[in-house]
Write a sequence for this structure.
């Protein structure tokens, strides 16, 4: 990636962050913290990695992105809007009756959404199903899944990891948004995950560890991951919950379900630009 | 006598000879759900998922999203309870084309006892939007239903069964339609609405009642959701009394579904034959049904009670 592209991606990410807090302000609730921590990951996937656009959104061989941590859909919605899946007007209707954008992603109402995540743990299994289905149908698309670190508390995640490795699904790449926080508290205080890399390695995945806010690091990781054969790859992305909005960073308060006041919105916008 | 699970395995195999659009997902219970005959014939069309029902259920939705039709074959307790939230949020809410085929229903399970006897699955599954619920009465109907279920786009919960059952229908004699029930016996005094293994018992009860001079109509409620409102209302108008019969808790099951129709459209006295809100236990199914009061004699008694309540 050259400097120009890096700048472009950085600009896209900034817009996404700005849209996240705008949507959160309009909705009066939602999950800003975990949406802000995965912005670079989602940006990199949608603008550099995946073969996906509104025109091919129902094509069988499109790449799949599964937001397993469905509560972070503000980031997904902002990316889908910028990719042209729906109009910006929809932002104002988020979480409001009779509108398209649901509190958690709904594939039946929202173009570009692949799966109705929101119940933690299920998205990764769905992604494994996509990858297995691709193999069974001789389709060459890739499946990408994004998990929360707190989400790893769910037993179903480990069922999915075990199974994906058993099947050697190298068409599956998962990312953990390792922002060290979950709903009420730091992961460390809820159910500690460490040694996380060793755990996932022991489940027979190819594992990479990166700075999840650094586009060069993400480029390196996804390039590597796509070359790995006969094993799925897990990218452990170290991130900061609330990234970019200083009063939200590393604070359990801004997990959700919480909305910004007008004043907070203004301060947040300033801290972004 | 054949078992419903064996019939299921054979029906799958038969259909698979003709079409390649479905696969079977098995959480290490192929012997129990009857799919092993299918697995022998079509090993590449069975996904061994390991004992991980929650992952299997969500994964089925992912596979469906690529165009294949996954049929999850599982014990009813684990399909409808261990993995119910996955069935709801991964399959029913996004409306993926996944079929759930559940064996091990109610006291019909027998010796394995209460952990394996699903007496809540109809109540649970029929409360989920988009989910259809089907409980065929015998192997012939099961075969007919399976094809219709696979042809229908959307989630379906199909109940098979574990123990040997007598056949009711002659080969090629019965079709299956969602939302349609068949009246297997005419009768003007009372209507017995039955599902699954209880249909045969309802027919036996109807024979006994006939000898006593009571004419009992028998309905086979194999499409529990959607349910045949028209036929139920028609029978209620004609007989003015109902008995429901199911190998399931009397709370929330097929009987409740029938009562929902009756109370809203054509109120009539109802007696419910089913498991009276308690857990099952080990034993031979034939012994258990007497112990728990869901044999044909219990249906006869319920008919006598309901006739006394007729206005
Ligand atoms: C099965 C399930 N249990 C509980 C919740 C409620 N919940 C929503 S987000 C969340 C915390 C998730 O933490 P993490 O995965 O670390 O997400 P992030 O920090 O990226 O926001 C919880 C408990 C849920 N959505 N699903
Ligand atoms: Mg977290």
């Amino acid at each position: 990636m050259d400097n120009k592209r890096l700048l472009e991606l950085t600009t896209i990410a900034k817009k996404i962050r700005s849209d996240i807090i705008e949507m959160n302000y309009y909705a009066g609730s939602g999950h800003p913290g975990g949406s802000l921590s995965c912005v670079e990951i989602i940006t990199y996937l949608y603008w550099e990695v995946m073969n996906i656009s509104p025109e091919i959104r129902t094509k069988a061989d499109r790449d799949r992105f599964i937001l397993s941590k469905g509560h972070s859909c503000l980031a997904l919605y902002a990316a889908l809007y910028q990719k042209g899946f729906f109009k910006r007007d929809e932002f104002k209707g988020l979480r409001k009756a009779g509108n398209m954008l649901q509190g958690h992603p709904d594939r039946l109402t929202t173009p570009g959404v692949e799966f109705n995540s929101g119940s933690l743990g299920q998205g990764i299994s769905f992604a494994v199903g996509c990858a297995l289905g691709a193999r069974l149908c001789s389709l060459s698309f890739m499946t990408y899944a994004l998990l929360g670190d707190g989400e790893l508390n769910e037993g179903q995640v480990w069922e999915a990891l075990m199974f994906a490795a058993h099947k050697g699904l190298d068409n599956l790449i998962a990312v953990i948004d390792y922002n060290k926080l979950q709903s009420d508290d730091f992961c460390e205080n809820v159910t500690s995950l460490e040694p996380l890399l060793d755990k996932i390695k022991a489940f027979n995945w190819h594992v990479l560890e990166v700075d999840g806010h650094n586009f060069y690091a993400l480029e390196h990781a996804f390039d590597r991951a796509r070359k790995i054969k006969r094993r799925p790859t897990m990218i452990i992305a170290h991130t900061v919950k609330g990234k970019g909005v200083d009063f939200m960073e590393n604070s359990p308060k801004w997990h959700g379900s919480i909305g910004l006041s007008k004043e907070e919105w203004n301060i947040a916008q300033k801290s972004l630009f | 006598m054949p078992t419903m699970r064996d019939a299921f395995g054979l029906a799958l195999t038969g259909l698979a000879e003709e079409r390649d659009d479905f696969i079977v997902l098995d959480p290490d219970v192929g012997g129990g759900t009857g799919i092993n005959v299918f697995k022998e014939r079509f090993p590449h069309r069975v996904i061994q998922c390991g004992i991980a029902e929650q992952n299997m259920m969500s994964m089925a939705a992912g596979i469906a999203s690529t165009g294949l039709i996954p049929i999850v074959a599982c014990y009813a307790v684990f399909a409808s309870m261990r993995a119910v939230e996955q069935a709801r949020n991964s399959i029913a809410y996004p409306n993926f084309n996944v079929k759930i085929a559940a064996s091990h229903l109610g006291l019909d399970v027998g010796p394995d006892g209460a952990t394996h006897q699903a007496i809540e699955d109809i109540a649970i599954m029929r409360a989920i939007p988009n989910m259809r619920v089907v409980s065929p009465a015998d192997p012939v109907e099961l075969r007919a239903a399976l094809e219709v279920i696979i042809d229908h786009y959307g989630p379906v919960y199909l109940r098979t069964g574990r123990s040997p059952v007598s056949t009711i229908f002659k080969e090629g004699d019965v079709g299956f339609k969602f939302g349609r029930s068949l009246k297997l016996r005419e009768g003007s005094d009372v209507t017995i609405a039955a599902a699954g293994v209880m249909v045969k018992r309802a027919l036996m009860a109807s024979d006994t009642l006939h000898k006593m001079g009571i004419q009992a109509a028998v309905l086979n409620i194999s499409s529990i959701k959607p349910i045949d409102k028209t036929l139920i209302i028609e029978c209620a108008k004609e007989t003015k009394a109902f008995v429901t019969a199911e190998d399931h808790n009397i709370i929330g099951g097929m009987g409740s579904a029938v009562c929902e129709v009756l109370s809203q459209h054509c109120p009539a006295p109802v007696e419910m034959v089913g498991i009276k809100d308690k857990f099952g236990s080990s034993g031979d199914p034939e012994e258990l049904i007497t112990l728990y009061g869901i044999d044909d004699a219990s249906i006869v008694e319920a008919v006598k009670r309901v006739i006394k309540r007729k206005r």
Notes: The CA atoms of residues 183 and 219 of chain B lie 5 Å apart. Residues 4-18 of chain B form the longest helix (15 residues). The mean pLDDT of chain B is 97.
